[in-house]
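User: Predict the full complex structure for these chains.
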Amino acid sequence: MNTYEKFREMMDNQIMLSFKGEITSDIINMVLQIMETSLDSVSEKGNVRKKIFNVLVECMQNLYHHAEAEVDGELDTRRAMLELSYDNDYYYILTGNFIKSKEIKPLQERIDRVNSLSKDELRQYYRQILDNNRISDKGGADLGMIDMARKSGQKLGYNFKVVNDELSFFDLKVKVAKKKEKK
Amino acid sequence: MDNLRIEGTKQTPEIDFDANTGILKLSGRSIPENTFEFFNPVLNWLDEFSAQAPDKVIAKINLEYFNTSSSKYILEILKRLKTVLKDDKDVLVEWYYEEDDEEMMETGEDYEDVSGLPFEIISIEEE
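Assistant: Here is the predicted structure of the two-chain assembly.
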């Protein structure tokens, strides 16, 4: 694929931003700034904008705190990917990172649990976790999934791909509806 | 004791805690990666404050965004105020949200429920 084709593909898929590399504090700030500018240019404001911003912060901080390094020859950086796109109905926030294969089961159980809950049940669960969990040095990881499900109002999409004995690749897709849903 | 003033940044909220008037303002964004670093001095200040608080304390919380790791610390702040309430002093939490930000309103209700403090949830017009 030549560069023009690659560019066209990104345009056709309505990709607002695509990143692969180590998620650092500077990168997080930069991505948030780029998104604010992009959302300004498409006049997306208020509630939807806040939801996207919130989900994006949680996703990137998950990568910042939980991405594992893929040991690859001399390289040992915690590479991850992040992609933001949209279609007529939704904005999509997609992240991908390595995790330890043994973490698949507990992580999957947590996401499935969050996905099985109704709006009100999610709220009760949020209150319960907020109250009971002790602060961990990496922040409230459990709250992160609940919060993303609450803010987006959608089920969390995910996938695991076993890479080798140690590592697997985890991708998470969160979508935010463009217009406020009617009640 | 000294007041606590911290300027806001793109990642951290503005703190304006007045030990004499009992007005504690927390506003802006709270999305740092390392929440402990930011909030630990704030909680330490509140530990000292709660032991010598004036008769009336009002916390004015007006946050645009906060991440989930900040949410634990916001609860910790409210827990410090609960000890002030238990000393038979007046404590009120004013929780502000932009009028179309239903989630922030609900989050205020969540904190009211979990903290057991008197809350006033106040809608503000967007700029």
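Chain B touches chain A at residues 10-11, 31, 33, 35-36, 64-65, 67-69, 71-73, 75-76, 98, 100-103, 106, 110, 113-114, 126 (CB under 8 Å).
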